[in-house]
Design a protein that fits this description.
By secondary structure, this protein is an alpha+beta fold. The protein contains six helices and six strands. This is AsnC family transcriptional regulator.
Length: 182
């Protein structure tokens, strides 16, 4: 009887039929690669190969395929915003002043570079913006620009501290819900 796997690198990789395809069509080994790269986007193909048990060329091929599929959309540097003079982070919820107006706030606000992220949300507001600025005065000026550019009302929450951010996903298992409970 034939084995159900092929040997690649130092470890065997299961090639079982439908069970190998998993959540959102991403195989277990690809989820492992994504998890490793999310934690360290500069990890070398050699280190990825060691961590996954694949050959360097197999890892390279899988990473390129994940990039082509859009699973991996890019690589970025994590910046210390305090060090570059943008210590104030806030979340700005926006709501159109005229509910019958076109829903084009993201386009109207795209020129404001202090807006780091724009999330469409369910609830009373239409969008939540993550902004980074140098001071409370800069935040006040930005809020005026947001209101004028998109014809919206705003509700702002200022971040006091960030215990953690940029957490890497752990793919392939359920989150540890209640793990802290004793």
């Amino acid at each position: 009887m034939r084995a159900f796997h092929r040997r690649r690198g130092p470890a065997a990789i299961p090639r079982a039929g439908p069970a190998a395809a998993t959540v959102a069509g991403v195989e277990e080994i690809d989820r492992r690669i994504v998890t490793l790269l999310a934690a360290d986007g500069r990890m070398s193909f050699t280190d990825l190969a060691k961590e996954t048990g694949l050959s360097v060329s197999a890892v390279h091929q899988r990473v390129r395929r994940l990039e082509k599929r859009g699973v991996i959309r890019g690589y970025a540097a994590l910046v210390d915003y305090d060090e570059i003079g943008l210590p104030l982070t806030a979340f700005v919820s926006i709501k159109p002043n005229d509910p019958s107006a076109p829903d084009d706030a993201p386009v109207r606000l795209s020129h404001l570079t202090a807006i780091e992220a724009c999330h469409s949300v369910a609830g009373d507001e239409s969008y939540i913006l993550k902004v980074r600025v140098a001071s409370p005065l800069a935040l006040e000026e930005l809020l005026q620009q947001i209101r004028a550019s998109a014809n919206v009302s705003t509700r702002t929450t200022v971040v006091l501290s960030t215990p953690y951010d940029y957490r890497s996903p752990v793919l392939g298992r359920e989150p540890d819900v209640g793990a802290a409970e004793g």
